[in-house]
Amino acid sequence: MAPLSDIKSPERAGASTDDAEARAQTTPVSKSALAVGIVMILVFVGVVGIIAASFFSAVPEISWPSFLVDSSTTLEKLGLMTFVVLLFVGVMALLLFMVDSRKRVPNWTVAIAFVGPALAALLLGLIWPGVSTIIQSFYGRSPWSDPERSEFVGFDNFATLFTTSEFQVVLRNTMIWVILVPLVAVGLGLLYAVLIDRTRGEAVSKGLIFLPMAISLVGASIIWRFIYEYRAPARPQIGLANQILIWLGLDPYQFLLNSPWNTVFLIVVMVWIQTGFAMTIISAAIKAIPDDIIEAARLDGVSGLRMFRYVTIPSIRPALLVVWVTITMTTLKVFDIVRTMTGGNFQTSVVANEFYTQSFRQFDFGLGAALAVLLFVIVIPVVVYQVRQLRLSEDIR
Amino acid sequence: MATVRFDKATRIYPGADSPSVDKLDIDIADGEFLVLVGPSGCGKSTSLRMLAGLEEVNEGKIWIGDRDVTNLSPKDRDVAMVFQNYALYPHMTVADNMGFALKIAGVDKSEIRRRVEEAAKILDLEPYLERKPKALSGGQRQRVAMGRAIVRSPQVFLMDEPLSNLDAKLRVQTRTQIASLQRRLGVTTVYVTHDQVEAMTMGDRIALLKDGILQQVASPREMYDKPANVFVAGFIGSPAMNLLSVPVTQDGAKFGTHRLDIGRDELANAGSKVVVGVRPEDVEVRTDNDGLEIEVDVIEELGADAYVYGSPVSKDIHLEGSDEEGERPFIARVDGRNVPRKGEHIFVFPKPQHIHAFNQETGARLI
Asked: Confidence band (pLDDT; 50, 70, 90) for B159?
């Protein structure tokens, strides 16, 4: 890394470095760097505030001014505000002093000033909860941070997950979701994108398929719950699906009750939403294939299905991969649909839903954390695979 | 190997008023290297794509050998094409790119390998066979595109401006390589370019198109010496031919004070004016008040020769092709050791045996 003053003001290399005021005025680079710095400092102050607050409340025996620990009255709140503002000004002043000081600032200080806040935020918002969850997954029902009640149970939570039939169903369902949703959504999206490519009214056909993406998962679930709605055969049906069965001369069916097919009917909702996404990305990729490659292939003697196999598919492979992995990850985390449509009953629960149920309805934090960790472990290979494949396909283009 | 025949082949794009290629008639001999040349939008690429089967033929027919290919799909025509951007398959190695057509045709693997290696040897591509196109330079990609065509040993090679993405030096080298390769393989080749130098140096014959209409098909020499009309005269040759509209008198045409002997019969139907063309190297430069008076604007020294760029002193005389954007200069090649000064007035007229004359109205060649 070059000395800071060199980065900031290359155009002033010859000017006297004693003139600190002139430096601040004549170097646009240092101004934009300051702007970035200020934003980072704001983040930093927020983080520091959170740390400070937890610190104050965590160490009660020291007699902190009461407004810092628990500000309930207006005066105390004002006091806290003043304190934070002063803290901010102090940090700002320190940083400005460092930036503007005539002495060369050591590289590590600059590095920490820029990277530090981001690292702190990552540490606090991602790594710490992650580690905490992993630790929790080895403890019993109660929060592990409460030493009075919690006990270390080792891998018991995981053993429960893999051996209890109730949880085996959850794992089985998740597997069905993760295999079926990307497969069907990408398959349908690809088929649709190829069929409507360069037809009349392409924009309209695309819009129709893409529309479900605009609906929230909960909204979509409610729509589909109506579609699957069951009424006894004697009564008039209000659900579209069962009405169609009636028209076909069949008996109405309990779509959401009968396992294991009810999981498939939930999956239909996800596919309905994700197909539009897959189609849009794939269609764009198909349009990006250069015309002359298609023409060269025609001269080489390929057409129809062989064109699809030898030219279209390899050309859009990176897009297919991105879509596949994105949908897989969305599917692994699926919660809203299951929660809204069946609440995880009737053997339709999946890992994310079960995690919620165990943690916040059964208050078995250990088991909930174990489910979250399991989800995390399943997602890792998918992400690794995606990164590796994308790197491979970058070699081609 | 085969002959190629365009028989009044016409292409009208949907919604267009006039045809992009209008009744194209060309006979290409077996093993011939024909260059289609013309300014952009003249229909040269469209003609090539009609031959390839990538563009529909609305009227007329196209023959390869004794097969009518007008309505055949591209793969059934037995032609191979080299594209301007090479159109290599990015996901295949060089070897797979070159052998793809054979693979599709169901040729046996060892045979494909043999033919690919043979072509790679000709094109110096052997070290690169397992690479992806991305890892190749522009020149190497160009050669792979050539190789892809050669491997198929088709009846006709089609090349659509294959050199336009190379830098100037490589372009000149590759130009020679392609021409000699074509002679060696003896495959009938149709080559599209907008560069008249490429056309002159590579082609056995040149076909010059303008606005979808064929202007002239001839050998480079004939094209240069006897351009069929004003357009051909102005397009072929660098620097371009000087073209001036001059009045017709009883016994010839007046070129400034100089009388050009053009012949009574030729001038009979020409009207009161003819367009006289003279190539820069065929200009006689005098200082004795005989000919057209020119004021020298710029001198380009080339060593042995020098080009004189000037403008007619008389404001009534304009070079053809002049418009609001600017007068075209009169260009004369002079001996490098005897160059007029800038601003000097010189008198020019064509050397008698190298006069081109064209009808003022139709542009057709008179002599």
From this structure: very high
| A395 contacts on B by Cβ (under 8 Å) | 132, 134
Q: What is the DSSP letter of B320?
A: T
CA distance A28 to A335: 49
Across the A:B interface, residue pairs with CB atoms under 8 Å apart total 68
ipTM for the predicted complex comes to: 0.84
The overall average pLDDT reported for chain B is 89
Which pLDDT belongs to residue A3? 44
Give residue A23's pLDDT.
Answer: 44
Whether B75 sits inside 8 A of A306 (CB atoms) is no
Nearest CA in chain B to A392: B91
**In the structure encoding, which two tokens stand for residue B101, read together?**
């057509």
> Would the CB atoms of B91 and A292 count as touching at under 8 Å?
no
Q: Which residues contact A385 (CB under 8 A, 6 or more apart)?
A: A325
- Would you say how long chain B is, in residues? 367
List the structure tokens of A86: 């002063």
Chain B residue closest to A315 (CA)?
B91
Going by C-alpha positions, the residue among B252, B254, B216, B246 that lies closest to residue B234 is B216
**Lookup result for tokens 């591509």:** B125
For residue B145, what is the enclosing H or E element?
Answer: helix B138-151
Mean pLDDT over all residues of chain A? 81
List B93's β-bridge partners, or say none: none
Q: Who contacts B190 (Cβ-Cβ below 8 Å, separation ≥6)?
A: B4, B28, B34, B36, B48, B51, B156, B157, B158, B159
Burial class of A338 by CB neighbour count within 10 A (0 to 12, 13 to 18, 19+) = buried
Chain B touched by A153 (CB under 8 Å): no
CA distances from A300 to B89, B105, B125, B337 (A): 11, 9, 20, 57
Other C-beta atoms closer than 10 Å to the C-beta of A236 total 7
CA dihedral B195, B198, B201, B207 (to 10 degrees): -60
AA letter at A186: V
Q: What digits encode the pLDDT tens for the residues B10-63?
A: 999 988 888 899 999 999 999 999 999 999 889 999 999 999 999 999 999 999
pLDDT tens digits for A1-50?
444 444 444 444 444 444 444 444 444 445 556 666 666 667 666 766 66
Contacts of B169 (CB under 8 A, 6+ apart): none
* CA distances for B243 relative to A241, B103, B279, angstroms: 81, 55, 9
User: Smallest CA–CA separation between B95 and chain A, in Å?
Assistant: 14
Confirm if A230 and A242 have CB atoms less than 8 A apart: yes
**Each residue of A302-342: pLDDT tens digit?**
888 889 999 999 999 888 988 998 899 889 888 999 999 99
Chain B interface includes A293 (CB < 8 A): yes
Query: A299 — contact with chain B (CB < 8 Å)?
Result: yes
Q: Parse chain A into domains and list their residue ranges.
A: 28-136, 159-396
Q: What is the CATH number of domain A159-396?
A: 1.10.3720.10
pLDDT confidence bin for B325, thresholds 50/70/90: low
Q: Do residues A134 and A371 lie in contact, with contact meaning Cβ atoms separated by under 8 Å?
A: no
Taking the Cβ of residue A18 and every Cβ of chain B, the question of whether any pair is shorter than 8 Å is answered with no
Alpha-carbon distance values, A60 to A77, A311, A315, A336 (Å) = 19, 69, 63, 41
What does the alpha-carbon distance between residue B276 and residue B365 come to, in Å, rounded to a whole number? 10
> B154, B76 in Cβ contact below 8 A?
no
Sequence-distant (6+) residues with CB within 8 A of B265 are none
Structure tokens at A124: 């606090």
Say if strands B252-255 and B258-260 run parallel, antiparallel, or are unpaired.
antiparallel
Structure tokens at A388: 């590796």
Mean pLDDT in residue range A179-189 = 94
